[in-house]
């Protein structure tokens, strides 16, 4: 589970060596958020101690300037400010920063670190139209190696936990019974689950591609879990590339920055996701069948998905096709032996990159498609049981005393899980609700939703809880309360749409896990790469695709 430091397996072999010191003036821009800083002497003193000083740039607040218009300066971190610096710069001129920004943009373009540009109408439908670099941090985020190893070691334990929870139908139905009454989306998922129980549908081959998300709490220094994701875990393709980008930049500029590229850990997420999908395809044992990606009709993040499809074909000779839920309803059929056929093509594995939000089910057509796939013999990633096992309510139930023991036998594994659990409570806990109303800043209110932009923070928590109390209905069953985690704040540079923004930020570490079993035989259970996301500290939400965060990588300390 320790870190290795080779490059991401799906990166292009194109070299940026000849680009680094021979380009024209950069056309990127800095968005500056501070001014009035002292003017130090410029003396470059590279060092590996990265928590002492940081870059500052002279300009008016909230002003966008061309690179040649601002003056790069270095100032000491203010004690007691709560801000951890990104890098130790004792002196740097603007040309060096300009080169790093320019080379990062060139590297991203050459290596496929791209998404669809939302300003271009067809960018989410037609590949190659309206591409822009994915949002990313200019340099990697410092992270303690001990906590990195802890997160990696937890991945196979969580993989096994999700599998065991998914097999306990009564636990899933009972735990979500109150939620079902007030949450229409969860209710429809549970209805499908119930239908599978009625026909005694067994998922002998079970594939999970999960991600467990964590933040490092500044006060306690504990690595605390935010959530477990069991459906449509995005960015295994592009997140892997960001690690390569940062390693490339440090290979060329590390001497000036005082950083070692070998401290950016290997991120094999794409290749290991693909290996898991290929192994599942093999277990299905129909060489004419394909892997089907269930996608949204307008998908600006299609290139993250296309990386996986390309690698499946190139490495494992497994073909893929992409279909929306509506297309599956129109073109899909179930053969008498349970085989799922879509557009005349037999399906071995259904890999969901959609279907996690009510927005993906605008009509009964999409729900018919979901039911059809669940009824089939195709391997679902995830199955309806895995999907339900990843809900916020189930996460909250697992934190309760003696519940983990129902699913996990090893006492050491139970202790490791409990160590990373943040506080989670049902809204029927009157004492916690009372405290959350009095101190709303210490809590997050979460509905049973995925995809970012759904949680409730700050004074809105108080208002929502008081409204629910006044209504006196069971609507509170749609939510859980979670302890709010306060990670360390770091000053860093964020790249979006060719513009470099400087801001105070916080980061969230996601660890991918792959799990595959056929009946009693566990074929794969491992950690498989990571997703680092960094966002402005002033932002409550954190999704990259939702527009709140940027992709990042780790610099192990």
UniProtKB/TrEMBL annotation:
InterPro entries: Glutathione_synthase, Glutathione_synthase_a-hlx, Glutathione_synthase_C_euk, Glutathione_synthase_N_euk, GSH-S_sub-bd_sf, GSH_synth_subst-bd, PreATP-grasp_dom_sf. The keyword Chloroplast applies. Keywords: ATP-binding, Chloroplast, Glutathione biosynthesis, Ligase, Magnesium, Metal-binding, Nucleotide-binding, Plastid, Transit peptide. It comes from the Eukaryota. Residues 289-389 form the Glutathione synthase substrate-binding domain. Its EC number is 6.3.2.3. Binds 1 Mg(2+) ion per subunit. Homodimer. Belongs to the eukaryotic GSH synthase family. This is Glutathione synthetase. It comes from Prunus persica.
């Amino acid at each position: 589970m320790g870190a290795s430091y080779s490059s991401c397996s799906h990166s292009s072999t194109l070299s940026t060596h000849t680009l680094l010191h021979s380009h024209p003036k950069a056309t990127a821009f800095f968005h500056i958020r501070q001014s009035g800083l002292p003017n130090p002497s410029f003396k470059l003193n590279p060092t590996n101690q990265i928590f002492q000083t940081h870059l500052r740039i002279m300009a008016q607040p909230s002003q966008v300037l061309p690179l040649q218009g601002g003056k790069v300066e270095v100032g000491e971190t203010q004690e007691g400010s709560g801000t951890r610096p990104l890098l130790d710069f004792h002196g740097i001129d603007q040309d060096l920063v300009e080169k790093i920004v320019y080379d990062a943009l060139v590297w991203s373009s050459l290596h496929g670190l791209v998404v669809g540009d939302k300003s271009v109408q067809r960018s989410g439908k037609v590949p190659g139209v309206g591409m822009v670099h994915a949002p990313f941090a200019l340099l990697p985020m410092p992270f303690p190696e001990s906590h990195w190893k802890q997160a990696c070691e937890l991945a196979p334990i969580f993989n096994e936990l999700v599998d065991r929870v998914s097999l306990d139908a009564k636990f899933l139905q009972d735990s979500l019974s109150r939620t079902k009454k007030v949450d229409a989306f969860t209710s429809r998922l549970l209805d499908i689950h119930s239908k599978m129980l009625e026909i005694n549908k067994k998922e002998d081959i079970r594939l999970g591609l999960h991600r467990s998300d964590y933040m490092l709490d500044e006060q306690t220094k504990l690595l605390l879990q935010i959530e477990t994701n069991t459906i449509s875990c995005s960015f295994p393709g592009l997140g892997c590339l960001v690690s390569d980008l940062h390693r490339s930049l440090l290979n060329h500029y590390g001497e000036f920055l005082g950083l070692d590229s070998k401290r950016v850990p290997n991120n094999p997420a794409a290749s290991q996701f693909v290996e898991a999908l290929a192994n599942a395809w093999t277990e299905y044992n129909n060489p004419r069948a394909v892997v089907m990606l269930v996608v949204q009709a307008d998908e600006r993040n299609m290139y993250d998905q296309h990386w996986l499809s390309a690698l499946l074909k190139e490495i494992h000779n497994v073909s893929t096709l992409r279909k929306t839920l509506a297309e599956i309803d129109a073109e899909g059929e179930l053969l008498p032996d349970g085989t799922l056929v879509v557009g005349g093509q037999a399906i071995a594995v259904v890999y969901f990159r959609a279907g996690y939000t009510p927005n993906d089910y605008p009509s009964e057509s999409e729900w018919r498609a979901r039911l059809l796939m669940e009824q089939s013999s195709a391997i679902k990633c995830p199955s309806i049981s895995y999907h339900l096992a990843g809900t916020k309510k189930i996460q909250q139930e697992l934190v309760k005393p003696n519940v983990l023991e129902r699913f996990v036998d090893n006492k050491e594994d139970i202790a490791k899980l409990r160590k990373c659990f943040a506080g989670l409570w049902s809204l029927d806990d009157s004492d916690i609700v009372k405290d959350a109303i009095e101190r709303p800043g210490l809590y997050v209110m979460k509905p049973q939703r995925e995809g970012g932009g759904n949680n409730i923070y700050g004074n809105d928590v108080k208002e929502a809880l008081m409204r629910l109390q006044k209504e006196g209905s069971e609507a509170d069953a749609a939510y859980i309360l979670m302890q709010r985690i306060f990670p360390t704040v770091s000053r860093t540079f964020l790249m979006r749409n060719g513009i470099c923004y400087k801001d105070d930020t916080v980061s969230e570490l996601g660890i991918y896990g792959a799990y595959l079993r056929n009946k009693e035989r566990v074929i794969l259970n491992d950690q498989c790469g990571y997703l680092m996301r960094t966002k402005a500290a002033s932002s409550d939400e954190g999704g990259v695709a939702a527009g709140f965060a940027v992709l990042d990588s780790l610099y192990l300390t």
